[in-house]
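Haem-binding uptake Tiki superfamily ChaN domain-containing protein
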Amino acid sequence: MPGIDTIDGLLRAVAEFDTDGFELSVTEAALERAGRSIEESGLLLLGEIHGVRENPLVVLGLMRALGLTSLALEWPEDLAPQLDLYLAQGGGLDHALWWLGDGRVTAGHLAVLKAMAGVRVTLFDGGMFTGDWSQRDANMARRVLESHAEPMLVVAGNAHTRTSPTDLGLPMGACLASARAAVESVRIDYGTGSFYNFEPRFTRGYCEGAGLRVAEDGELVVGLPEFGEAMVPHLPVDLLQERLSP
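Tokens:
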């Protein structure tokens, strides 16, 4: 099984991740709209495909461009104490929830969080999925609002950050929009590349251009014409079940 399966391997991948070599270009119109969302709602949403190497670099670029110091991630809330320990001392990575392998947690994220000294991080996934997609998203939206950490960038899978109902149900973004009407969502527009979601995957698409911009359909997007597979901590299901069982 590809992916990282040891703490030492994960720490090496974090140390080797370059947080300085990526520059996020922004257009004035897009930056103005993103800033208005922050000013009027306290939030800006960012929708990603999990497991892309550049995802945390986009987060870092947006945080810096908008002058933000609060970040919310679709990570299990039970990892909050372990994340605090990691940021303070470099430990805490032995918890099984780091190692699910779905691409939400990557070596790049851990490197970027270290690079953003003093950032306040909210983890808003409740953990075990009950099967009610809309209820999970409603709960995630509630945790975001209850964190009272605005102004804040809120990052989740792109199915969760839409601000109107979808075929899946009522996403987190729509729940947040009902509470904060001015909130906007930024979609990462992926071109061609690889990503890791339980296994290596490849997709070929078209991306109009790099950086933060207003797309032709009026959406806010961050273009990634080419992208790479993230280094993702991933352990086998049987071992995870053993470690997560009471």
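The chain has a mean pLDDT of 94.
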